[in-house]
Amino acid sequence: MKKVAPWLVDLLLVILFCVIGRRSHDEAILTGLLKTLWPFAIGLALGWIAVRVLASRGAGDRPIDGIALWPTGVLVWLGTLCGGMVLRAISGQGTAASFIAVAATVLALFLLGWRAAVTALR
User: Fold this and answer.
1) What is the residue range of 69's domain?
2) Would the CA dihedral through 43, 46, 52, 55 be positive or negative?
3) Number of structural domains, the chain?
4) Whether 69 contacts 51, CB under 8 Å
5) Cβ within 8 Å of residue 20, ≥6 positions away
6) pLDDT for the residue numbered 80
7) Could you give the count of Cα atoms lying within 13 Å of 27 in the half-sphere of its Cβ?
8) Quick one: DSSP state of residue 59?
9) DSSP label at residue 72
10) Predicted TM-score of the model (pTM)
11) In sequence order, which residues have a C-beta less than 8 Å from that of residue 45 and are 6 or more positions away?
């Protein structure tokens, strides 16, 4: 469970990001959530894959620290943001500059923020 917990926290926060976005635009949350979520969920998975690849090329069998801000948090954040935006663009969903700025900020606050808080409390 310890290995899965950071990924689950990230996933829940990405879902929360999508729910807040849909709610702030008065869009149906439950019926449209999957449409908003899937690009960012795949981006999140890509970020975690990048973390695994980096760890496997690093110090051998060193375990991945899912709570570390660097490199885990940054790679997960960038994967979620960039992967999500690319997939949104490919699928014809909006990628206005203002949306990218808001998404970058909120996802950073969520995906890096919880890691910073846990690290500070350690």
Assistant:
1) 5-121
2) negative
3) 1
4) no
5) 106
6) 98
7) 15
8) S
9) I
10) 0.93
11) 79
